[in-house]
Amino acid sequence: MNLKIWINFKQIKELAEEGEYNLSDFNYSFITDKQIKRWIGKVKVDILKEKWEDKKVEYLFNSKSFKSFQMKMINLHAQRIAALVKLIEDGEKIEPVIFEISNYCNDRNFVVDGNHRIRAYQFLNKDGFWGEMGGEWDLMKKFKKSLKEV
């Protein structure tokens, strides 16, 4: 059973500082606003239909160096984030971020699906995002209680 929950960036940061949860640094936080801005207006939202993981393998085998591979991947992620920014700005419905809270994850929480969406919300200076939380029921209830109502 999943719980639908509003995740506020400020609250997540505060909880992380208390040492209980570690959701303050998401997977694509290293993609800078400048890298995302480079693709705003240039990338089509159709890029979101492509499986970016397939590109990763293609880039890995066709890159002449690790640095070249790294730059291609940064651009690929920045393009996906820019496309999501466009959708959000246009008021399109975006799927919720899916994450799991479990004792089996080292940091007790894990974004299953939605890291690009989270970075798009951060880029747009949104307060937070809607998510669906799954995992161990007791941990989910504890996490939900630790969030203040917004």
Question: What would you say this structure looks like, in words?
Answer:
45% of the residues lie in helices and 15% in strands. It is globular, with a radius of gyration of 16 Å. The two termini are 23 Å apart. Helix 3 (52-62) packs antiparallel against helix 4 and helix 4 packs across helix 5. It contains six helices and four strands, in the order βααααββαβα. It has one domain (3-146). It is an alpha+beta fold. It has a four-stranded mixed β-sheet. The protein has helices at residues 9-17, 33-37, 52-62, 66-89, 115-123, 137-146; strands at residues 3-8, 97-101, 110-113, 128-135. The mean pLDDT is 83.
Give the biggest beta sheet. 4 strands, mixed
Q: Give the beta-strand count.
A: 4
Annotation field: number of helices: 6
Query: What structural class do helix, strand and pairing data support?
Result: alpha+beta
Helix and strand sequence: EHHHHEEHEH
Tally of discrete structural domains: 1
The first-to-last residue Cα distance is 23 Å
Query: How large a portion of the residues is in β-strands, by DSSP E?
Result: 15-25%
**Stretches where pLDDT falls below 50 for ≥5 residues?**
none
If strands are numbered along the chain, what order do they take across the biggest sheet? 1-4-2-3
Shape, please? globular
Radius of gyration: 16 Å
Give the proportion of residues in helices.
Answer: 40-55%
Average pLDDT score: 83
